[in-house]
Design a protein that fits this description.
about 290 residues, alpha+beta, L-fuculose-1-phosphate Aldolase, eight-stranded mixed sheet, 8 strands, about 40% helix
């Protein structure tokens, strides 16, 4: 059991500090996002609705119970409080929740590109694979239920077109997971721009994740799978579709994508200058 009042003054100061960090690190803008932290087994401190996280003050915070009823503070709790409370109800080890709108991560969801891949060793160790939840309208019970179910096995999740939810042992822990997600997304986007993302080998992904769960912990449900074959990793990290790790012939197992390799012969790509030259020559021939 937690203490009834574990230094609320310091938790208020920390929540304000982390809110400003989220803004300064471009993880949210304007009135986006919301943060919360447990005060006790019965009470949660959270940001109120309609406040700028980069300019938080003490009167921007309210205290609610686990039913979402305001106990003290001016104004109403964030409209997405149900999502925070779902995380606390699902996992007694969660002491803080940070929801923000990291732009590169959201761009992946808008583009329909999954981030649930094993690419960076440090991320596999600490977060595993980051899933993207199906779209649900913001502020609804349906979205809260979906997030609550997801955090049973994940400390960090993406919501389609909406943003990220990260949980942690404290506010800094949750913030670090959020920052790591956006950093990973930027690297993955840069790799795609340079030619493609190459996943870690499946055996290495499993070894890293198993070690991470044993060394750093994680969701209790995921830790329980630390010694299982594949640990808690998704199928995308355990098999090659031919895109992340193509064979010498450029073929692989069906990926399920709308575009696939159709030939085992190299594809010749013309340069733009060469193509323009051939077009000009064709036009001259037509015009005589």
């Amino acid at each position: 059991m937690r203490d009834t009042q574990p230094d609320e003054r310091s938790l208020r100061a920390e929540l304000i500090r982390i809110g400003k960090l989220c803004y300064e690190r471009h993880l949210l803008v304007a009135l986006d996002g919301n943060l919360s932290v447990r005060l006790s087994d019965e009470l949660v401190l959270c940001t109120k609705a309609g406040c700028h996280k980069g300019f938080l003050a003490d009167d921007d915070l309210v205290v609610v119970d686990l039913d979402g009823k305001r106990v003290r503070g001016a104004g109403e709790a964030t409209s997405e409080m149900a999502m925070h409370l779902a995380c606390y109800r699902e996992r007694a080890d969660v002491a803080a929740v940070v929801h923000a709108h990291p732009p590169t991560c959201i761009a992946f969801t808008v583009a329909g590109v999954s981030m649930a891949r094993c690419v960076l060793p440090e991320v596999v160790l600490t977060l595993g694979a980051v899933p993207t939840l199906e779209y649900d309208r913001t502020g609804t019970g349906a979205l809260a239920d979906r997030v609550g179910e997801a955090v049973r096995l994940h400390d960090a999740v993406m919501m389609d077109r909406h943003g990220a939810v990260c949980v942690g042992a404290d506010l800094l822990d949750a913030f670090c997971k959020l920052e790591t997600m956006e950093h990973m997304a930027k690297i993955m986007k840069a790799a795609r721009d340079l030619g493609g993302i190459q996943d870690l080998p499946a055996s290495e992904s499993v070894a890293l994740r198993s070690m991470g769960l044993q060394r750093y912990g994680g969701p209790p449900g995921a830790v329980a799978q630390a010694h299982d074959e594949g640990a808690d990793l998704p199928e995308s990290c355990l098999s090659c579709s031919g895109c992340g790790q193509p064979s010498a012939q450029g073929l692989g197992m069906p990926s399920g994508f709308s575009v696939a390799r159709l030939s085992d012969t190299p594809v010749v790509v013309q340069s733009r200058r060469q193509l323009e030259r051939e077009v000009r020559e064709a036009i001259r021939e037509v015009l005589g």
